[in-house]
Target: Phage tail completion protein
Amino acid sequence: MAELQKVDDWLTALLANLEPAARNRMMRQLAQQLRRMMRQLAQQ
Model:
């Protein structure tokens, strides 16, 4: 769980330093990848 917190802290710092447009683009790509992964898991 501590490793997950480190990743969360890193992502929070990264997102805080991005311009709003870049942050939106990154979050959209992340959401798309997450949906793809969840769809693949549901098909198994």
